[in-house]
Specification:
Helix content: 10-25%
Largest sheet: 9 strands, antiparallel
CATH architecture of one domain: 7 Propeller
Strand order of the largest sheet: 5-6-11-1-2-3-4-7-10
Structural class: alpha+beta
Length: 820
């Protein structure tokens, strides 16, 4: 293609891009500017008699200057709009100019019509009707698995490239159409595929994100959900076939990665256990939660979100031991300022209808992501703002100023992105020499306590991995990924956003689309521009971290793996440690949620939370043998009888103790404050040597607890005023099972000697028997013959006993006879 100004001899060779809203001419000369001709400014299109060219006349056009850096051509300056008449002539070398002219005429007409998107889709379908995948790109030993290929869109930040997808017995192929790159086909070998994640793009669950061992990514959006399912199944099948063949390193890698990430994404609790035990860093755990909740670095409307963890950006020295240096993670960004929060509350009170909201601005939007990454991706901001940089006052110039804006502005509620906690940190420097119309951009101004960008990132990461943040991070997770994300809990936590932001966070996006009664294109535009909630992962309060490894300030720079994505971090964990943790925390189906996190008394980060680094906290559950689930140890009764005042004193609770239990190693107490206290029994049983150490405190319920039964050293049955019986693991700090069979307070709990059966009594005058499994409770029989509140109950074999404190003798049942 050659472009010539009519009446002039000068000619410029290049490629003409026929787009939906404009013509774009890209010169072969990398130093020349790109020219863009929007259809709305094109007044006429002519086709001379010789048929080798076509001419246009336009009132104005856009000039895009480029800059060459290394092997890349970058756009780092705003577009220039030239408001003067221009009449270029396009000489077509390898096709008929009349065909292009007709296509441009149709697109020009569609751009001015009221049904633009419908008309463009129709034109696109006609133009590409005969296009098929080029099978010559496959190797001679490969077999194509998708006849003709499937039309997909490759998704990159703020960019979609349409093309044909082909899957073979050895690789994944993407053939762009039209092809704007120098590569005719992009290929990913199946042996290089590390993980395949399902994604929701827009309002449809029809996308796959394919991660390679080299760190590459292919994000594909399908035209139909069925096609996405088809390709996903074929990928899994072919990867398994390759993994079963031979002993090559690629086959071994496939075998080791086929289920790791995919299965873990389906059971978030396993990764939570790794984090609780200290094997997984705070950064990698948050990175995982973002991935599990559908966030991706390729989709700026669902970019990974990370918290502001520091509040001190002005001191000359940063003290990570001072709690005043940290942001309050129990509050969303919008609630950090009481004055601003009052404004939001007053505005919501004045809204009509049921769809009230506190914040109309989300904490993660494409505009916020580009705000942070301007120096690394100036093209993305120019694309978002139609060829312009945002106003100077709204550009990311200073970390302290951004923090001040987040605390004061009603239009700035943004959280951070993962780049603030990993190296390299060049994205904070203006290495591309970007110049805005107002001023030169410059490097980001850092806090006084940071000597350079690497030092800034290292200290931000050290703050994220600190003991203080580790103990309070569950509160922030509750707001972003948990039960405080929506509903009444969100209202109470001042965390309620516009209804559109919740599309896909619960249920399917299609259900949300029907509920909102908005056209799909309108809703997709709003989601792409204004952000959306992550998919909700937790439905009860997130459990606490049980061990926080020390994080030296130099660790990030000394260990490059700490800047890698979560799935690489998981693979780097020793296999025996990983398997041990996951085996011990196989909690069952996703979506059951967690019990509330442990409380720490007056301390923010109690030393008793730290376990020895060489092992995970908590003992291994005994294996199943002869129907026995947990083996009891001798000595529990004698230990309990030997307790003295020095041991019991630390259990003084607010409102008093309501229940106690023990095993061979621990003493447990529950109280009216809804808390569970765990204290190891002393090794020596003399009164003089009795000491209490390594106590652990857990907030179980906002309502009083009234009963506890020890099933093993780290496994308990709990009951309280919420009428529920809970199976609770103190090693993980979370509930394994929760069931509500009683209509009133649970007053007593007792396990059978072999720990395979549990009985619970209640004020509702009933006794329930339960079958215990490795991580669940199953109700079996309900007895309601006492006619009085149950005070105590017990079971042994087929015999169940129960009594009230107002009626003696009590009742007993034989399960095989049901009642005597």
């Amino acid at each position: 293609m050659a472009l010539t100004r009519r009446g002039q001899v000068a000619e410029s060779k290049g490629r003409l891009r026929i787009c939906s809203k404009s013509l774009i001419f890209q010169p072969d000369d990398v130093g020349a500017s790109i020219l863009k001709f929007p259809y709305r400014y094109v007044r006429s299109i002519e086709n001379p008699a010789d048929g080798s060219c076509f001419n246009i006349e336009c009132d104005q056009f856009i000039q895009v200057a480029t800059k060459t850096g290394g092997a890349e051509t970058r756009i780092v300056t705003p577009f220039t709009i030239l408001k003067s008449k221009f009449s270029p002539s396009f000489q077509v070398h390898y096709a008929r100019a009349s065909d292009y002219r007709q296509l441009v005429e149709r697109l020009r007409g569609a751009a001015s019509s009221g049904a633009f998107h419908t008309e463009v889709r129709r034109i696109l379908a006609e133009v590409t009707a005969d296009v098929q995948f080029d099978l010559s790109r496959l190797g001679h030993r490969e077999t194509a698995l998708l006849p003709g290929g499937l039309w997909v869109r490759q998704v990159e930040p703020l960019l979609e490239v349409r093309g044909l997808l082909q899957l073979s017995t050895e690789g994944i192929y993407f053939q762009p159409h039209p092809n704007f790159s120098s590569e005719p086909v992009k290929q990913v070998l199946l042996s290089d595929v590390l993980h395949v994640f399902r994604r929701v793009y827009g309002v449809q669950a029809n996308a796959l994100e394919i991660i390679t061992v080299h760190g590459g990514c292919l994000y594909l959006c399908f035209e139909a959900r069925g096609e996405c399912e088809q390709v996903s199944s074929l990928l899994e099948e072919q990867r398994r076939v390759l993994a079963s063949q031979g002993t090559s390193p690629s086959a071994q890698l496939l075998r080791s990665t086929l289920t790791d990430a995919e299965n873990i994404l389906q059971n978030v609790r396993k990764m939570t256990a790794l984090w609780q035990s200290g094997l997984l860093s705070n950064f990698h755990y948050l990175d995982f939660l973002n991935c599990a909740a559908g966030r991706s670095r390729n989709d700026f409307s669902q970019y990974p979100v990370f918290p502001w963890v520091l509040a001190d950006y002005s001191s000359p020295q940063l003290n990570l031991e001072d709690v005043r240096s940290y942001r309050d993670l129990t509050k969303p960004v919008g609630a950090l300022s009481e004055k601003r929060l009052s404004y939001f509350r007053e505005r919501m009170a004045g809204m009509d209808g049921e769809d009230k909201f506190l914040y109309g601005t989300h904490y993660s939007t494409p505009a916020y992501v580009i705000y942070w990454l301007l120096r690394a991706m100036p093209e993305r901001m120019l694309r978002l703002h139609n060829g312009h940089f945002d106003a100077w006052a709204r550009l990311f110039r200073s970390v302290p100023e951004s923090w001040q804006s987040v605390n004061e502005s009603t239009a700035s509620l943004m959280e951070l992105i993962p780049e603030f906690f990993v190296l390299p940190a060049e994205w904070l420097e203006n290495s591309l020499s970007i110049v805005t119309p107002e001023f030169p951009l410059g490097d980001v101004a850092l806090p006084r306590w940071a000597s350079n960008v690497s030092d800034f990132i290292s200290k931000m990461r050290a703050a994220l991995e600190s003991e203080h943040v580790s103990q309070h991070l569950p509160s922030w997770i509750d707001l972003i990924f948990g039960f405080k994300q929506s509903g009444d809990a969100a209202v109470k936590a001042d965390n309620l956003f516009h209804p559109v932001c919740y599309v896909g966070s619960k249920g399917s996006p299609e259900e949300a689309l029907n509920a909102l009664s908005l056209p799909m294109e309108v809703l997709e535009t709003q989601l792409q521009e204004f952000g959306r909630m992550p998919r909700q992962l937790f439905f009860e309060a997130h459990p606490p971290r049980l061990r926080t490894p020390k994080w030296p300030l130099s660790k990030l720079q000394e260990e490059p793996g700490q800047s890698e994505p979560w799935y690489k971090a998981v693979r780097s964990i020793a296999r025996e440690s990983l398997e041990g943790t996951l085996e011990r925390t196989d909690f069952g189906a996703e979506g059951q949620g967690y019990m509330a996190p442990a409380v720490n008394g007056a301390k923010t980060s109690p030393p008793e939370r730290q376990a020895p680094q060489a092992q995970l906290p908590g003992p291994q559950a005994a294996p199943f043998q002869g129907g026995e689930l947990w083996r009891s140890r001798a000595g529990s009764l004698s230990s309990l009888r030997s307790l003295n005042a020095q041991v019991v004193a630390p259990f003084a609770l607010s409102g008093g103790i309501t229940g106690m239990a023990s095993c061979s190693t621990n003493l447990y107490a529950v109280g009216e404050d809804g808390c569970l206290r765990v204290s190891p029994l002393p090794t020596g049983l003399s009164a003089a040597s009795a000491q209490v150490s390594s106590r652990r405190n857990f907030r179980i319920s906002p309502m009083p607890l009234s009963a506890v039964a020890a099933l093993d050293t780290e496994l308990l049955a709990l009951g309280g005023h919420d009428n529920a019986v809970v199976l609770y693991s103190t090693s993980c700090g979370s509930s394994l099972s929760r069931s509500q069979m009683h209509a009133d307070t649970v007053t007593c709990l007792s396990a059978s000697p072999c720990r395979t059966m549990l009985v619970s009594g209640s004020r509702d005058q009933s006794i329930v028997t339960w079958t215990l499994t490795s991580a669940s409770l199953k109700s079996e029989t309900i007895f309601d013959d006492l006619q009085q509140p149950v005070a105590c109950a017990a079971c042994s074999g087929p015999l169940v006993l129960g009594a009230s404190d107002q009626q003696l003798p009590g009742f007993f049942w034989i399960l095989s006879c049901l009642h005597l």
